[in-house]
Design goal:
With about 850 residues, this protein is an all-alpha fold. The chain has 29 helices and two strands. The chain has helices spanning about 1-25, 35-45, 65-80, 85-190, 195-210, 215-280, 290-310, 315-320, 325-335, 340-355, 365-390, 395-420, 425-445, 450-480, 490-500, 505-510, 525-540, 550-575, 585-600, 600-610, 625-655, 670-685, 690-715, 725-740, 760-770, 770-780, 790-810, 810-815, 820-840; strands at about 485-490, 515-520. A two-stranded antiparallel sheet has the order 1-2. The longest helix is centred in the N-terminal third of the chain and has 108 residues, at about 85-190. The protein is rod-shaped and about 240 Å long.
Length: about 850
């Protein structure tokens, strides 16, 4: 029963499997049925009922339903021992049923199949014919297509070539611009257009090379560009070096042109200013006629020079090709190495500046040396100023200011040193003009030049010194050529000539008829003219110093004072002290200095006129001519006194006294009469001197003569004097007194001049009268008759007379006749000695 129950349970399962096999596509059967189905398929294959859509590989995986079918199919084999058999029976039954159905279907369609076969057989013959025709047609077509194939292959080959050519053209269109640009680069390098070459390199690197970077020639070009850049740097630097060397050689030409242009502009401006002053109709003093005429001449000359110089104005660009600097700067800027270029340029220019600032050792000898020095410096800084304005960053204002300050200090030191060697005022003046032009030129380019004008004030003092030395020689020549006699005038023309040279005014002289004489000598108008020329020379240096008229006037007055107080005064003193200058010349020198002193006010007016300064201007320096010529006169007066005394000494040295004579000659000595005649003639010349000078000279001469005569008596070498000699000496003193009383020089009151001989007179009277008792009794009394007789002097002379009496027995007669007198002499000698001793003790 159990087995029947289990058999009943499996039948539905078998039915379901069979139903599924019949109704389901083989692909839908679960993959777990593969092995059992393969067996089934074998069975079904025998019956030709296996579905064509099934394959064993398609059931490798299954769904849950398929898994269930697998379990069901497995149950066919595993549940019961006969289950498989039963299933197979069922399966056979199904197969038979299907075979029957197939057979039925085949029987139903068999006639149709036969008809179809019959139709096919009928078509077979036509098909063979068609095959033959098709074959023949194909053969013919193949024969005809061979030429087409050949042409087609040619076309294909041409198409390939055309495609390749198109590709090549496209690639060449990419490469040709690169090659053209590279060729352009080579041409630019050959033409030395380096800046354009660098720009071309940038285009190649940024635009063209990226397009053809895959080609080997492009890599070679890329590798070659750095070398080209270095070559450009080296070449541009070489060009810069050549440029620096060129401007170093041409700096003097550049500076010369710049200074010439500055001079032309300055000349034209000055000419316009002078023309404006002339149009205002300024009237000058007659002493100012010369400068007015000079102004007109200079004005005319300035316009003529301006007309002659009306030519194309050259600039620094016309003289120098700055393209190497621009190229080099642009090249280094493009290369990103601009700082290196700037440092190199500034370093080299500083070296050149030091070379330019180094003067030649003999620069001070000629003005050309200074001019060459200045033109080189101007050329250097003109180039720097141009570089400053046309480039950005290569030269800065701070750099040029630093360079200029360094150069200015060096220039001032050089000029201060070399100008100290200049002894020619004309050279110093030309140096000043060059410095002014140098300063004005550089000032026009924006460089500060105040220190140069300060230096000019130092050079001005040196210029004044050289002028003073030059004028000292001029004055010496004038004094050497002067005849020291009044200027003779024979007609009106000569009179006007002298008046035009020297401002002399004397109504009395004007009233005199010709011929007549000016009181001064020829040196006076010559000196006056030379003083004016000195003022002109000083004015030349003061011009163009950018100073006010007041300052220029003050400078002229100070320099003129130096000329008067130092140079002229020294020349006068040296002249006065010269041995060959006699008394007549000294008298004329005194007269000359008087007139020169009076002319000082005209010199002040002259300075005022040429500087256009009002005389009422406050703090105007006065000329010191008054003190200068007074000092010269005093020196001349002193020299007159000295020379007069020397002349007296010369005459006194001619004295030839016989000090032992017994009787006098009865007339004065010849030397003394000659001396008196000389003094009379000299004092007549003194009438042109101021009264006090003549009186002082006369008094000094008489006093010196008196002293000389006294020294002659008291000479220590004179051992003895006779009474006859004393009497002869007394005759000479009487002639001196007569000369003094004759008033050789007017202006003495009473016996003032005779008092010069009072000492001699009282001494001789004492010995002539032999009035010792009175002398000894009144000695020391204010009213003493022999007040001027010194006991020592009397003792000396008395002892000389005593010695003479002993040797010549002059007093023998006295001893015989009057021994008391001899005792008196001894007593007098003793008393005189006691007086002398008393004076010594008192002293």
């Amino acid at each position: 029963m159990a087995e029947n129950g289990e058999g009943l349970g499996t039948v539905p399962e078998h039915e379901r499997i069979l139903q599924e096999i019949e109704s389901t596509d083989t692909a839908c059967v679960g993959p777990t049925l593969r092995l059992p189905l393969e067996c089934v398929c074998v069975v079904w294959h025998d019956f030709h009922v296996l579905p064509t859509c099934w394959s064993p590989e398609e059931g490798a995986a299954g769904s849950p339903q398929q898994l269930g079918d697998e379990c069901t199919l497995r149950s066919v084999y595993d549940d019961q021992p006969n289950a498989h058999k039963k299933f197979m029976e069922k399966l056979d039954a199904c197969i038979r049923n299907h075979d029957k159905e197939i057979e039925k279907m085949c029987n139903f369609h068999h006639q149709g199949f036969v008809d179809a076969i019959t139709e096919l057989l009928k078509v077979r013959t036509d098909a063979e014919k068609l095959k033959v025709q098709v074959t023949d047609t194909n053969r013919k077509f193949q024969d005809a297509g061979k030429e087409v194939i050949v042409q087609t292959e040619d076309i294909i080959r041409c198409r390939i070539q055309q495609r390749n050519i198109t590709t090549v053209v496209e690639k060449l269109q990419l490469c040709l611009p690169v090659l053209e640009m590279y060729s352009k680069l080579k041409e630019q390098m050959s033409a030395k257009r380096y800046y354009s070459a660098l720009k071309t390199m940038e285009q190649l690197e940024n635009v063209y090379f990226p397009r053809v970077s895959q080609y080997r020639f492009c890599q070679l070009m890329i590798e070659n560009l750095p070398k080209l850049r270095e070559d450009i740097k080296e070449i541009s630097m070489s060009d810069l070096k050549d440029f620096l060397e060129s401007i170093r050689k041409h700096s003097d030409k550049i500076g010369e042109t710049a200074m010439k242009q500055a001079q032309q502009q300055k000349t034209f401006s000055v000419a316009l200013q002078k023309q404006n002053r002339v149009q205002f109709g300024k009237n000058m003093h007659f002493n100012g006629r010369i400068p007015e005429e000079r102004n007109e001449v200079e004005l005319k000359r300035a316009f003529e020079e301006e007309d002659e110089n009306e030519e194309e104005v050259l600039t620094v660009q016309d003289l120098v090709d700055f393209s190497p600097v621009y190229r080099c700067l642009h090249i280094y800027s493009v290369l990103g190495d601009e700082e290196t270029f700037e440092n190199y340029y500034r370093k080299q220019r500083k070296k050149q500046a030091r070379l330019v600032l180094q003067p030649q050792s003999n620069m001070h000898e000629t003005v050309d040396g200074y001019r060459r020095y200045f033109t080189q410096i101007v050329g250097f800084f003109v180039v720097e100023d141009h570089i400053l304005h046309v480039t950005q960053g290569l030269v800065t204002r701070a750099y040029t200011d630093e360079l200029w300050n360094m150069a200015l200090s060096k220039i001032i030191a050089v000029l201060r040193a070399h100008s100290s060697y200049c002894t020619d005022p004309d050279l110093v003046l030309e140096l000043k003009n060059l410095i002014v032009l140098f300063a004005d030129t550089l000032q026009g380019y924006g460089f500060p030049v105040n220190r140069l004008f300060d230096l000019l004030f130092e050079i001005r003092d040196q210029y004044n010194e050289t002028l003073l030395k030059k004028w000292a020689g001029v004055f010496r020549d004038i004094f050497e050529e002067d005849n020291y006699s009044p200027i003779p005038i024979v007609n009106e023309e000569e009179y006007k000539v002298v008046i035009s040279k020297f401002p002399f005014q004397d109504p009395d002289l004007e009233k005199q008829s010709f011929p007549k004489k000016f009181p001064m000598s020829q040196s006076v108008p010559h000196i006056y003219i030379q003083v004016k020329e000195f003022i002109y020379a000083s004015l030349k240096f003061s011009e163009s110093l950018h100073r006010s008229s007041t300052e220029i006037d003050d400078m002229l007055r100070k320099s003129t004072n130096l000329l008067l107080t130092r140079t002229l005064s020294s020349c006068l003193l040296n002249l006065i002290r010269k041995p060959h200058i006699g008394l007549t010349e000294l008298v004329q020198i005194i007269i000359n200095t008087t007139h020169l002193e009076q002319a000082c006010r005209y010199l002040e007016d002259f300075i005022t006129n040429i500087t256009n300064i009002s005389q009422e201007t406050v703090h105007t320096t006065r000329l010191y001519g008054l003190s200068t010529f007074k000092d010269a006169r005093h020196a001349a007066e002193g020299e007159i006194y000295t020379k007069l005394n020397q002349k007296i000494d010369e005459f006194v040295q001619l004295a030839d006294y016989d000090w032992t004579m017994s009787e006098p000659d009865g007339r004065a000595s010849g030397y003394l009469m000659d001396l008196i005649n000389f003094l009379r003639s000299i004092f007549q010349v003194f009438t042109h001197l101021p009264g006090k000078v003549a009186q002082t000279a006369c008094m000094s001469a008489c006093q010196h003569l008196s002293t000389s005569l006294m020294q002659m008596l008291l000479d220590s070498e004179l051992k003895q004097i006779s009474m006859g000699a004393v009497q002869q000496f007394n005759l000479d003193v009487i002639q001196c007194e007569l000369f003094a009383s004759s008033e050789p020089v007017p202006g003495f009151q009473g016996d003032t001049l005779q008092l010069a001989f009072i000492d001699l007179r009282q001494l001789l009277d004492l010995f002539m009268v032999w009035d010792w008792s009175t002398y000894l009794a009144d000695y020391g009394q204010p009213a003493s008759k022999y007040l001027r007789v010194n006991p020592n002097t009397a003792l000396t002379l008395l002892e000389k007379m005593k010695d003479t009496s002993k040797k010549n027995n002059i007093f023998a007669q006295f001893r015989k006749n009057d021994r008391d007198k001899q005792k008196l002499i001894e007593t007098v000698v003793k008393q005189l000695r006691s007086l002398v001793n008393g004076m010594s003790q008192h002293t």
